Amino acid sequence: MITFSINGKEVQGQEGWTILEVARWHGIEIPTLCHHGALEPYGACRLCVVEVNDGKRSRVVISCMYPIRTGINVQTDTPRVLNVRRWIVQLLLDESPESPKIRELAQTLGVTPSRFQKKGVDFACHLCGLCVRVCQEVVGVQALSFSNRGLRKEISSPFHTASKECLGCGTCIYICPTGAMEQVFLRVHG
Amino acid sequence: MSVTFSALENILERYPPSSEHLISALQDVQAKFNYIPPAAMTAVCEHLGVPVSRGWAVATFYKSFSLEPKGVHEIKVCLGTACHLKGGARLVESLERELKVERGHTTRDLRFSLDTVNCVGACALAPVVVVDEGYQANTNSRRLKKFLKNVTKE
Amino acid sequence: MVQVSTALKSNDFRLATPAALAAYRESILAERDPNRTIIIVCHGTGCRANNSPKVADALRRAVAAAGLNAQVIPEIKDTGCHGFCSRGPLVVFQPSGLFYQKVQPEDVEEIVQKTLIEGTPVERLLYADPETGEHVVHDRDIPFYKYQQRLVLSNIGKIDPVDLRDTIAAGGYQSLVKVLTSMTPDEVITMVEDSGLRGRGGGGFLTGRKWRMTAEHGRETPGPVYILANGDEGDPGAFMDRTLMEGDPHAVLEGMLIGAYAIGSSEGYIYVRAEYPLAVKTLRQAILSAREAGLLGENILGTGFSFDLKLNLGGGAFVCGESTALMASIEGKPGEPRAKYIHTVEKGLWGRPSNLNNVETWANVPLIIAKGADWYRDIGTEGSKGTKIFSLVGQVKNVGLVEVPMGVTIKDLVLRIGGGVPEGREFKAIQIGGPSGGCIPQAHWDLPIDFDSLWDAGAMMGSGGMIVMDNSTCMVDVAKYFLEFLIDESCGKCIPCRLGLQRMREVLKEFSAGRGSLEDLEELDSLARAIKDGSLCALGGSAPNPVLATLRYFRDEYEAHILHHKCPAAVCKELITYAINPELCNGCTACARECPQGAITGTKKEPHALNASLCIKCGICFEVCKFGAVTVA
């Protein structure tokens, strides 16, 4: 067992666990968007950031991937952490102001829309990749993937046409946190 | 199509069926056909034993792959820092107007493809435009216009 | 250019022992007459673009036609980049060092007649001192070269990069022999540690320490250990690695071989940008000829050590310069970085211990082995040892590639080697460290160039691109430029990088249009910290640097845009207007013919006028006017 602390409270976890896993085990809340217990962590949304001090230096890491180490001090709500989290939610809220999931997060963190808010957008894919991962890791096919990069990055099937691999099982729709997959699915499945 | 098919076979023969060769094989396809035809993508992925979605992810991620046919002449305007300071952006804009095509696309007559590159490492020649294999050094809109006219005549 | 020796052509040519390599070298040297003239024609990308292959061809023809006495027939050699790109094509006579610049094919006959036959220089092709106008005959006396210390670049411009014989004659692979025959792997690592060599790709991590960590992890579990060279030089304004790969590829190979021996690896990869076709070709040839000679492959030089290399081409993605993205790309995946909470020296390529160094780092290794750690430690500063290659570009007279000891000041680099900014311009800043670096203003130009000083000044060494900026450069525009570069190159995985950089650009766009408020500067700062803290890889983690660094030193320029709606450098389109000064315009009609909008009208030989309501501020009139009559304010 590895002993360390979260927010000053001593906690224990098994070798190979992540900070997020131990935190949730102890009922300590850390928000996430792209995390799912049944899937390998991906580390894209960055909402789960925490500050880790290993005695030498302090740095901001993502708790969903950071392996626990003996003696580290983890803080889940420092100003640095909250600054990252608030900006992520701010950016997401301005991208898709109508998304219930994002609005809920914004309310918790006290974030309101800015002057850069997009108008008339109801499509709210944040590229968390849960659909891509569940299709590969759980369903066992790879009907869809990320395509392009940067601002043009999206979830799609090859050549934006119906995928031969797609079973039509709908697991991707079920796991999608924002509902955006319903639209993407129409093209993937054909 | 049969010629195309044998050209593709030649490429596939070079690679053992393993996913690590995906990028190299697609680079060969790009070099041979000037773009990645969907049929070639499927064939490469099947040969290497990777899902087509992986080939799709790769081909759309890297800028050097094109999913639409490229023009006969490829124009690459360098937008590295040195070229930016010396008017690289002005060159792209004027080429867009001149060729009536947006950057990243090909003219309707398939004569020219206009792309930007984030530094070709020829900063001493700034601003530089690479047309096919040749470097147009210390160039400007007027000289480029003339040069492209000559290219078309050939 | 390809001069494969008869020995290399035969299939059974293989250097089976260190003694065979030594004997081979002796035989090459014995064939050479040290007094024979060698005419070297630079074939770097800059000189090539300016016709150097035609110059070399013309020289070969002219020499053949001149009917020279057998004793004076020169060898004509095509080499890699000499560095002085703004003066190309360059032609240098060895062993004298006679230096000709801006040589064109039509100059060749005169060169043969005067220099080869009569033994006198062609004055008009010599370098002229810009201050005194006096001609300088030899390369070593030209300030651009005089103040450099060319160690890693020492062979470039002297050897034919694709002729292995030339490399061997120059002492190539001697360091490999030294480690294979007289040093244990641990001794090699210790020597590299003692040298203080730090990674040249930007991170500045101690190379020896990285090697030791990889070697240790490699021993812990059975399986392959990988040696990787990063030649995915993506920083805009940088071409050090390109020059090395094109000009002295065997130095990179030899460094990797030494590293492989020290770390215990038998497989390696060189990852090189596809945008560098010549580097790809040269490396490919170098690998083939080294393999043929038995310097790569099984049982190298009969010592029992085996190592071989593959060449992987990058596909136009800057992010692949990041170690984990580079490894993903070699594995045939999109170049998305992954979290490095477990370092690549432990789990890298295919989950195995992997040692990645930049090609310039690798090229330093044979030097350290040959001359010793103490020799190396004597060069440079306390924390940064050795020399560093920089590409000096932008608004500076002598554009090119330079190598200087660590610790040289910015001022010395720009003034003594670079010759200062062009006449009538004013030095404003130097941008160091690529898109993640910073702009350092004139007030700080006594700053020594080393890893730590640059870091403290808000810039970073990066891979060594140095872009000189003068008063025609707008710092808000520069910050926006780098943001756009990084937005284009971001893999898009992390939200803070993908959406945060985009937001920063939106804010800067407002500034460059004269909108926004001072509070926005605070917002930018807070967003910048969120992006730095919240991004996975070095691209996102340092992406806000250009904005932060320009804000630090050029806040007044931001304020001029925001508060006074002015762009002091007259760059930002929304804040400038073009006009024609009737006193200077002589009615040549050049601008009117080129204006895509038809916004310029006038009669021939009469001053023209510009209709501002039609003007799209494309700047073409400004560019074509030879009389300075088009003004921008």
List the helices and strands and how they pair.
The complex is a heterotrimer of chains A (190), B (154) and C (633).
Chain A: E1 2-6, E2 9-13, H1 19-25, E3 49-53, E4 58-62, E5 73-75, H2 79-95, H3 100-109, H4 130-139, E6 145-147, E7 154-156, H5 171-175, H6 181-189
Parallel strand pairs in A: 1-5
Antiparallel strand pairs in A: 1-2, 3-4, 3-5, 6-7
Helix pairs in contact in A: 2-3
Chain B: H1 2-13, H2 22-33, H3 38-48, H4 52-61, E1 73-78, H5 81-85, H6 88-99, E2 105-106, E3 112-117, E4 129-131, E5 134-136, H7 141-153
Parallel strand pairs in B: 1-3
Antiparallel strand pairs in B: 1-4, 2-3, 4-5
Helix pairs in contact in B: 1-2, 2-3, 3-4
Chain C: H1 6-9, H2 18-31, E1 38-42, H3 45-49, H4 52-65, E2 75-79, E3 91-94, E4 98-100, H5 108-118, E5 127-128, E6 135-136, H6 143-146, H7 164-169, H8 174-182, H9 185-195, H10 207-220, E7 226-231, H11 240-247, H12 249-263, E8 267-273, H13 277-292, E9 308-314, H14 323-330, E10 354-358, H15 359-371, H16 373-377, E11 387-394, E12 400-405, H17 410-417, E13 427-432, E14 438-441, H18 451-456, E15 465-470, H19 475-489, H20 495-512, H21 518-534, H22 538-542, H23 545-553, H24 555-564, E16 578-580, H25 590-594, E17 600-601, E18 609-610, H26 620-624, E19 630-632
Parallel strand pairs in C: 1-2, 7-8, 7-10, 8-9, 11-15
Antiparallel strand pairs in C: 1-3, 3-4, 5-6, 11-12, 13-14, 13-15, 16-19, 17-18
Helix pairs in contact in C: 8-12, 8-15, 9-10, 9-12, 11-12, 11-13, 12-15, 19-20, 20-21, 21-23
| Shape-level CATH architecture of the largest domain in chain C | 3-Layer(aba) Sandwich
Oligomeric state as shown: heterotrimer
User: Which fold does the CATH topology of the largest domain in chain C refer to?
Assistant: Rossmann fold
> How many helices of chain B?
7
- The spatial strand order of the largest sheet of chain B comes to 2-3-1-4-5
Query: How can the largest sheet of chain B be summarized?
Result: 5 strands, mixed
**What's the CATH H-level superfamily name of the largest domain in chain B?**
Glutaredoxin
**Overall pLDDT level of chain B:** 90
Taking Cα atoms only, what radius of gyration of chain C do you get, to the nearest Å? 27 Å
CATH class of the largest domain in chain C: Alpha Beta
Keywords:
heterotrimer; B: 154 residues; alpha+beta; Glutaredoxin; 2 domains; five-stranded mixed sheet; 7 helices; 5 strands; 49% helix; 13% strand; C: 633 residues; alpha/beta; Rossmann fold; Ubiquitin-like (UB roll); 5 domains; four-stranded mixed sheet; 19 strands; 14% strand; globular; disordered N terminus
